[in-house]
TrEMBL record:
A Pfam family per the record: Adenine_glyco
Coiled-coil regions, chain positions: none
Presence of the UniProt keyword Zinc in the record: yes
Annotated PANTHER family: DNA-3-METHYLADENINE GLYCOSYLASE 1, DNA-3-METHYLADENINE GLYCOSYLASE I
Keywords on record: Metal-binding, Zinc
Cleavable signal peptide: none
InterPro entries for this protein: Adenine_glyco (IPR005019), DNA-3mA_glycosylase (IPR052891), DNA_glycosylase (IPR011257)
Transmembrane segments annotated in the record for this chain: none
Amino acids binding Zn(2+): 14, 27, 181, 185
Annotated protein name in UniProt: DNA-3-methyladenine glycosylase I
Gene Ontology terms describing biological process: base-excision repair
GO molecular function, one term: DNA-3-methyladenine glycosylase activity
């Protein structure tokens, strides 16, 4: 089976983006493009945690609801959430109402604050784990990697929750730490160009 399918313009795209219409824009404009914004990185870590046991389609459909419920994933605000906020979120039908995952976001917000104090930014920490070219698997073959295992292990050591190696690998794919677009995908070259022009956080 081919790793790609023809997009609306006739050019090849990664096969997974044909699963639902909303995947196409996400695939073409976000997935695999490098990110150094702490809020976006934190959001993605949280959403990947919420995805555990579910589909990305479910999470993407609810993303704007998540953003509203968690104040745009401003981890400084989330770190101050109280039990009342947890109850509010558990009653919010627009998100995934899972107490453990909600608690993980609040915990991870506090850990993110600690990391910014130590590292300067979440981005500067995360991008230290960018794998070297010779450490990459063939596109869309792996679900974990040495880099995702290392980042997952270090985050857990620092007290983060819902950050297993598979979750972290999906995070690294999405945030452009690796370019996992299929080799024939028309967006792979665009993501590669963006990664080439990207200034890694110091």
């Amino acid at each position: 089976m081919s790793a790609t399918i023809p997009g609306p313009d006739g050019r090849p795209r990664c096969r997974w983006c044909a699963a639902t219409p909303e995947f196409l824009a996400y695939h073409d404009t976000e997935w695999g493009f490098p990110v150094d914004d702490d809020r976006r990185l934190f959001e993605k870590l949280c959403l990947e945690g919420f995805q555990a046991g579910l589909s990305w389609r479910t999470i993407l459909a609810k993303r704007e609801n998540f953003r509203a419920a968690f104040h745009g994933f401003d981890f400084h605000r989330i770190a101050d959430f109280t039990d009342a906020d947890v109850e509010r979120l558990l009653n919010d039908a627009g998100i995934v109402r899972h107490r453990g995952k909600i608690a993980a976001v609040i915990n991870n917000a506090k850990r993110a604050q600690e990391m910014v104090k130590r590292e300067g930014s979440l981005a500067s920490y995360v991008w230290r784990f960018e794998p070297k070219p010779d450490e990459l698997a063939a596109p869309q073959i792996a679900s974990t990697s040495a880099a995702s295992i290392a980042l997952s292990k270090d985050l857990k050591k620092r007290g983060w929750s819902f950050v297993g190696p598979t979750t972290i690998y999906a995070f690294m794919q999405a945030m452009g730490l690796i370019n996992d677009h299929a080799k024939e995908c028309v967006i792979r070259g665009q993501a590669a160009d963006a990664r080439m022009a990207f200034t890694r956080p110091a």
